[in-house]
Amino acid sequence: MRIVMVGLPGAGKGTQAAYLADNLSVPRISTGDMFRVNISRGTELGRRAQDYMRAGQLVPDEITIGMAKSRMDQSDTADGFLLDGFPRNEHQAEALDRLLKDNGVSLDAVLDLQIPREEAVRRVAGRRLCRTDDSHVFHMTYNPPRSAGLCDLCGGELYQRQDDTEHTVRSRLDVYDRATEPLIAYYRARNLLVRISALGPVAEITQRSMDALRQHSASDRPVS
């Protein structure tokens, strides 16, 4: 299957993308990973992206699209993939359609993980990372550390990322509304949108997603 995943910041896209990709036996392709790989390998696209990032500017769509094309051309995507973080807007979605058409394939579904806006704020603003290893993630409400301000796994100091503050999260939600909501309409019009609730235990959300994707693939109708 070829799937795009969308949803508000805090909806759990990264977590679900990893589980779903494993369940579907397809690679997860995340925007963050594409940027890290291209920058670390010093590719032309990576160097161009880094120039914009160092200048504090947004990376143009054309660079992101180029990275996505390069990644999707790799052999492990022959039977499908799960895109996490791309496309982010309608222009990128149109470019993705062209890339897939050139390869004689198309998207199977766009999975929209839905949570209430205030829940998105709570989830992101409550997140704390370990300075020693930022893969150690805690949440002040849902997964608090045993000792305040310290990582349970290594004892490192916990901190809040600058873009995880409540004010910044609300700004990110506004950006999502402007850029990504038109993307939702774009895919709804193409009968690709599959919407599920992303509330509840992780395993339940994964199963809910798998069931909805199977139902969608067996039907000509979108799942709402």
Automatic annotation (TrEMBL):
It catalyses: AMP + ATP = 2 ADP. The keyword S-adenosyl-L-methionine does not apply. Pathway: Purine metabolism; AMP biosynthesis via salvage pathway; AMP from ADP: step 1/1. Pfam families: ADK, ADK_lid. Residues 127-163 form the Adenylate kinase active site lid domain. InterPro entries: Adenyl_kin_sub, Adenylat/UMP-CMP_kin, Adenylat_kinase_CS, Adenylate_kinase_lid-dom, P-loop_NTPase. GO terms for molecular function: AMP kinase activity. Keywords: ATP-binding, Cytoplasm, Kinase, Nucleotide biosynthesis, Nucleotide-binding, Transferase. ATP binds at residues 10-15, 127, 137-138, 200. Its main location: cytoplasm. Signal peptide: none annotated. Its EC number is 2.7.4.3. AMP binds at residues 31, 36, 57-59, 85-88, 92, 161, 172. Consists of three domains, a large central CORE domain and two small peripheral domains, NMPbind and LID, which undergo movements during catalysis. The LID domain closes over the site of phosphoryl transfer upon ATP binding. Assembling and dissambling the active center during each catalytic cycle provides an effective means to prevent ATP hydrolysis. Monomer. Belongs to the adenylate kinase family. Catalyzes the reversible transfer of the terminal phosphate group between ATP and AMP. Plays an important role in cellular energy homeostasis and in adenine nucleotide metabolism. This is Adenylate kinase. The lineage of its organism: Bacteria, Bacillati, Actinomycetota, Actinomycetes, Kitasatosporales.
